[in-house]
Amino acid sequence: ISDQKPLGCWSVKHGQILTCPVVCNFETHEYIAVHDNKVLRIWKNEDINLDKAFKATLSADVYRIHSLPDGGPVVLFRGGGVRTLDVLLEAPQQEIENVISDEVIRWSGAFMEGQQLILIFTTEKDGDFFVYVQKPKLSSLHKYKLEQQESSKPLCFTAHVTNQTVTLLCLYSNDSVYQVLIPLQQDTEEEEEEEEILSKSLLLNFSVPGTVLKGTSLVVLDKDHVAVLGSLAVPGKEPRECLSVWNTKFQTLQTSKELPLGTSGQLWCYEEKFFLIHGKVLTVIMYKCETSSLAAAVGKLKDSQNPDVSSFVNWNTLEDEELVVSFQSQESVALKAESRMNLRSRRSTVAKVQPETLSVGQLLLNLKDASTYVLETELRQLMSKAPTPDLQATIGCVVTALTDRCKRNPKYYPQNFLLEIVETRDLSYSLCPDLMAVALEKKDMHLLQICLERFPDIPEEITYACLKTFLSISEAHLQNIDVNLDSVICYVDVEFDNKEVKTEIVENGFGAEMDQDMCDTKIPKETQSRSDGESCPVGLQKAALLNAVLHSAYTETFLLPHLKNLPAQQAILFLRYLYYLYVKCSEKVNTALPGIRSPTINQIMDWMCLLLDAHFTVMVMLPEAKELLSNLHKFVRAQVRFYSQLNKIEGSLRELQRLNHLRESQTYSIEVLEII
Fold first, then answer.
1. For all residues of the chain together, what is the average pLDDT?
2. One biological-process term from Gene Ontology (predicted)?
3. Under a CB-based contact definition with an 8 Å cutoff, are residues 461 and 425 in contact?
């Protein structure tokens, strides 16, 4: 979340539908999903193809899977039957009892009470609502009927369990929250024939003078606070969606915030963070529950007309850059503010909206039309202030102000200032998303190189744009550009030297005598004397830039579609360079390239596989790629053969290592070890 990087993506086949939310098994670190109601899928993070993941077809439709860190996954079926995942996997086709008759499950939740897992779900039938409390491991089930409410019905539920009591909160259509207390009964052998009717009490009424709050989602924050996502209706105006926090002890509004881009109506809460869909973006808002007191509650009520002034919720996620972005069109303000969401600068504390934050935005607005000298001087002073929790976000605003001026004035580009900021500050792409776009437009190769090496959250689209730019730019143009060569200066051989390539590459299994009859492809005689991997196909500057791309973090699923758009000639050039690095790594036993920030063997192999996946069909058809693919094929097969031979003598090598430990260091001896 802090880096805004997608880490994985899995898809079901065309025609299949995921029918309940995917959960994580905290014990095995696996994902659990159900598609088409009955098909269970279980896979790990490193699995790529969901179709090849573990599959089990169940005998009944699944409503929801719940997973708790200490309780293990539990499966709730649409008929009300419950099974722990372990029991279910022992016999996937086992018969599942139908607990509810003609009832429809409306909500379910899982909780831990001591060491006992408690599953609660509510159902509806003909306007009546029922509550089921189940202890799956004890096969205990209790059914209750919810007291009816005239002219209103429940919209959503949430619950928590404390001191052997279930507290069920129900959000009703009359804009009120009711509380139902259900004691956890001791299990007896006798089944109760008549269901008990649960009475409810009014907990909270969403009454703010002049407005009506229509809630759609409700979550419990602690024993005295709840959060409600819904729409705020003001007479004579269109309803506006908002997120609000309420104090249930004193019946007061704690804080609220309008969400102008709209939501999905769903709200999640986890580890003092709200999760909600705002527009097209997943927004994460940090909060911290304060000790509930009358003074605090009344104070918040007084500030309800100005809900931005709140230490309860950190609205900075939505507001940090709104003042800066107002340089641009007003229509993009909220979206830009969302795109800059970054929690890394706020991990240590839930920062209050300090006066300094407002002064930063106001200062940048005032500097909008200032001269270049005044602008850069003021920005340097702003960054030189003592460190604060929001300093990182402030520096992101500074970079945004500079890039905004670059876009308004094409002749303005403070290259040295931007380089200084990126090299000396712990920035990320999400704090200044326009920086790399401006650098690409200005063909600033050095700045792009530094960003690729330092930013942990660069989108795959931008990584691809950098790669394409680096491959397309001419070597002659790069000669006049200042680029950091630390990653290439120690191993790239620009000038081909016949003597140098005769080093003992055989160390890792590649030699001329080993690759005979490794491949049937005919290679011209003039090319058999040397391999494409023996001399670098690009210059020092371009090699250094390409190394920066290899260091950039990516997700294969999201990068591959962009790589397929890379022109064929550029793809071949990049593959030749990767093959050159691959051979260089294999010259040494430790498979590590010398230098600072040099690519690792894993990075090289991953990018080679990516590139071949994206362009294999094209490369097979191109005559100029035939020799390269043939050499790559021979080299890989030679290494596979070499490591296969090493595996055969692994036992003998282990024995030799054991004897070395047993030998006394003071004595001299000659030993003969026979390898069979």
1. 77
2. maturation of SSU-rRNA
3. no
At a CB cut-off of 8 Å and minimum separation 6, what does 144 contact? 130, 131, 132, 133, 182, 195, 196, 197, 198
Do β-strands 196-198 and 281-286 pair in parallel, antiparallel, or remain unpaired?
A: unpaired
Q: Rounded to whole angstroms, how far apart are CA atoms 324 and 357? A: 11
Instruction: Give the span between the Cα atoms of 348 and 286, in whole angstroms.
Output: 11
CB distance 205 to 198 below 8 Å? no
Give me the residues paired with residue 125 across strands: 128
The Cα–Cα gap between 222 and 245 comes to: 11
Residue 113 confidence (pLDDT) above 90: no
Per-residue pLDDT reduced to its tens digit, 149-180: 878 889 899 998 888 899 999 998 888 899 99
- DSSP 8-state code for residue 328: S
Distance, CA of 168 to chain centre: 33
Query: Could you tell me which of 567, 395, 611 has the C-alpha nearest to residue 471?
Result: 567
- Predicted confidence (pLDDT) per residue in 399-409, tens digit: 888 888 888 88
Query: Which amino acid does the sequence have at 611?
Result: L
Three-state DSSP class for residue 407: helix
Beta-carbon neighbour count of residue 349 at 10 Å?
11
pLDDT at 310 over 80: no
Instruction: Say if CB 136 and CB 162 are below 8 A apart.
Output: no
Residue 253 has phi, psi (to 5 degrees) of -80, 120
Q: What mean pLDDT do residues 456-465 have?
A: 90
CB atoms within 10 A of CB 607: 23
The C-alpha atoms of residue 264 and residue 293 are separated, in whole angstroms, by: 33
Determine contact, residues 48/62, Cβ cutoff 8 Å: no
Confidence class of residue 311 from pLDDT cuts 50, 70 and 90?
very low
State the pLDDT at residue 281: 79
> CA 279, CA 375: separation in Å to the nearest integer?
34
For residue 432, give both structure tokens: 């200044």
Indicate the helix (H) or strand (E) that contains 301: helix 294-302
Q: Give the E-state strand segments of 192-280 in sequence order.
A: 196-198, 201-205, 207-208, 211-222, 225-233, 240-247, 252-258, 263-269, 273-278
Token pair 């049937």: residue = 520
